Amino acid sequence: MAAEATEEKVIQIVSDQLGVPVEEVSRESKFVDDLKADSLDLVELGMEFEDTFDITIPDEDYEKIQTVGDAVDYIEQRQAEA
Amino acid sequence: MSENASVSSDRVTRSTELRRVAVTGGSVVSTLGHSRQEFWERCAAGKSGVTRIGRFVPDEFKVHFAGEVKDFDAAAMVDVPEKELRRMDRFVQFAVVAADRALKEAGLDKDSGDPTRRGVLVGSGIGGLHEIEEQHRTLFERGPRRVSPFMIPKLMVNAASGNISYLFNLKGPNSAVATACASATNAIGDAFRLIQHGQADVMVTGGSEAGITPMGVSGFARMNALSNRNDAPALASRPFDKDRDGFVLGEGAGILVLEDWDHAMNRGAEILGEVLGYGMSSDAYHMTAPDPEGRGAGRAMTFAIQDAGLNVDDIQYVNAHGTSTPLGDKAETAAIKNVFGDHAYKLAVSSTKSQLGHLLGASGGVETIACLMALTEQAAPPTINLDEPGEGCDLDYVPHEARPMKIDAVLNNSFGFGGHNACLVLGKV
């Protein structure tokens, strides 16, 4: 999957799950500080990423994903490894 | 009061005198409408809200019908972000919508007044059964890693109270009651006590239930507790009728705003009615069957009337528990006759469950709203489908449609699996 397509999909998922308009979500958006996600939101977002991109995110990797860009890069990397 | 209260400076003085408790708001989510007025119009006209189940295919179940709320869309009914609504089970959404409407009617918004003097106490018999079933399916089909992080906060019985407290900034008492089908009545009674004793000035209270799910329907059907009248759902709930064959599952919410009388007067609120008394007792007889003589039920009625400082002949209308089960309606009739003596035959007694089905832990909430309407509209709501009274059922059950009459005080009865009996007395302003 092309990087742009991954980014677009991630932004759409983040927008839907967190109730934030797509225009207000960018690669730089921080989940907690900017998008007001709480710890349960992050777990649910992780599940959505796993389902959509057919990857597994181990619990210990959650802390590596602080921004939307982190999520896009992480997903790309996991898909490349597969 | 400051939100950081200290015992020395801010302690609420223990009141020696009981305060009067006003009803200043009330709303419902029900098959007969989602406002008090709409609900009352259809209730008084003798309409039934019982229909074939539409939320799942009921064909392989013994019972195909229920008092199912068909036109509910929380996002369109309350100003709460969809993200928040997704974190609520259906029973919580019902409670939040009804609470929002009741608070608006009472003229209380979350930014005025002292939030530490406002509380919430909403009951539910079961809690988030939809969520339990959905996540249980996910667990077995897709494994434990796919279970939602929101499952626990969605399914808790106290999720209705918790969400109402959070959304409407109620920082006083925050509690919940689970006494099966007596839950809402116990909740309202307990909230009444908190205001009487000065522990809150405003309480949002009542009950909410959404148990019309595959497990809910099959569970009650397997107890042989439900009517099987699949060919005529609207005729199935027929309390006190000789052909009654069990109750009909219902769903919805009934939420009231109770308020310290002086607090309501001082802010110029319209007072709709007064909560006068609350009584409770236990059968200690059987987990699901009522005491055939209704002794526990009778004690709760007596305590509520005594607590109100009334005599039995001060009551004109009784909103019966009246579930349409062969044993329950007969036992309740016996209990009413025991408590009221000769006056029993002068009472108007009716069952709103004939129209809505049985809302379980929410039933006492919508039925207290029906009582409030009886007081404000001066009419006894009906018992529909009562064509021929059954053996042992010889009171005036107000068949088919509402009856205009003078009503100064009403008694509301709710009894639950587990032997719980709860009764409230309300009075006209």
TrEMBL record, chain A:
<keyword id="KW-0597">Phosphoprotein</keyword>
<feature type="domain" description="Carrier">
    <location>
        <begin position="4"/>
        <end position="79"/>
    </location>
</feature>
<keyword id="KW-0276">Fatty acid metabolism</keyword>
<protein>
    <recommendedName>
        <fullName>Acyl carrier protein</fullName>
    </recommendedName>
</protein>
<dbReference type="InterPro" id="IPR003231">
    <property type="entry name" value="ACP"/>
</dbReference>
<keyword id="KW-0443">Lipid metabolism</keyword>
<comment type="function">
    <text>Carrier of the growing fatty acid chain in fatty acid biosynthesis.</text>
</comment>
<dbReference type="InterPro" id="IPR036736">
    <property type="entry name" value="ACP-like_sf"/>
</dbReference>
<comment type="pathway">
    <text>Lipid metabolism; fatty acid biosynthesis.</text>
</comment>
<comment type="similarity">
    <text>Belongs to the acyl carrier protein (ACP) family.</text>
</comment>
<keyword id="KW-0275">Fatty acid biosynthesis</keyword>
<dbReference type="Pfam" id="PF00550">
    <property type="entry name" value="PP-binding"/>
</dbReference>
<keyword id="KW-0963">Cytoplasm</keyword>
<feature type="modified residue" description="O-(pantetheine 4'-phosphoryl)serine">
    <location>
        <position position="39"/>
    </location>
</feature>
<keyword id="KW-0596">Phosphopantetheine</keyword>
<keyword id="KW-0444">Lipid biosynthesis</keyword>
<dbReference type="InterPro" id="IPR009081">
    <property type="entry name" value="PP-bd_ACP"/>
</dbReference>
TrEMBL record, chain B:
<feature type="domain" description="Ketosynthase family 3 (KS3)">
    <location>
        <begin position="18"/>
        <end position="428"/>
    </location>
</feature>
<dbReference type="InterPro" id="IPR018201">
    <property type="entry name" value="Ketoacyl_synth_AS"/>
</dbReference>
<dbReference type="InterPro" id="IPR014030">
    <property type="entry name" value="Ketoacyl_synth_N"/>
</dbReference>
<dbReference type="InterPro" id="IPR020841">
    <property type="entry name" value="PKS_Beta-ketoAc_synthase_dom"/>
</dbReference>
<comment type="similarity">
    <text>Belongs to the thiolase-like superfamily. Beta-ketoacyl-ACP synthases family.</text>
</comment>
<keyword id="KW-0012">Acyltransferase</keyword>
<dbReference type="GO" id="GO:0004315">
    <property type="term" value="F:3-oxoacyl-[acyl-carrier-protein] synthase activity"/>
</dbReference>
<dbReference type="Pfam" id="PF02801">
    <property type="entry name" value="Ketoacyl-synt_C"/>
</dbReference>
<keyword id="KW-0275">Fatty acid biosynthesis</keyword>
<keyword id="KW-0808">Transferase</keyword>
<protein>
    <recommendedName>
        <fullName>3-oxoacyl-[acyl-carrier-protein] synthase 2</fullName>
        <ecNumber>2.3.1.179</ecNumber>
    </recommendedName>
</protein>
<keyword id="KW-0443">Lipid metabolism</keyword>
<dbReference type="InterPro" id="IPR000794">
    <property type="entry name" value="Beta-ketoacyl_synthase"/>
</dbReference>
<dbReference type="InterPro" id="IPR016039">
    <property type="entry name" value="Thiolase-like"/>
</dbReference>
<keyword id="KW-0276">Fatty acid metabolism</keyword>
<comment type="function">
    <text>Involved in the type II fatty acid elongation cycle. Catalyzes the elongation of a wide range of acyl-ACP by the addition of two carbons from malonyl-ACP to an acyl acceptor. Can efficiently catalyze the conversion of palmitoleoyl-ACP (cis-hexadec-9-enoyl-ACP) to cis-vaccenoyl-ACP (cis-octadec-11-enoyl-ACP), an essential step in the thermal regulation of fatty acid composition.</text>
</comment>
<dbReference type="InterPro" id="IPR017568">
    <property type="entry name" value="3-oxoacyl-ACP_synth-2"/>
</dbReference>
<dbReference type="Pfam" id="PF00109">
    <property type="entry name" value="ketoacyl-synt"/>
</dbReference>
<keyword id="KW-0444">Lipid biosynthesis</keyword>
<comment type="pathway">
    <text>Lipid metabolism; fatty acid biosynthesis.</text>
</comment>
<dbReference type="InterPro" id="IPR014031">
    <property type="entry name" value="Ketoacyl_synth_C"/>
</dbReference>
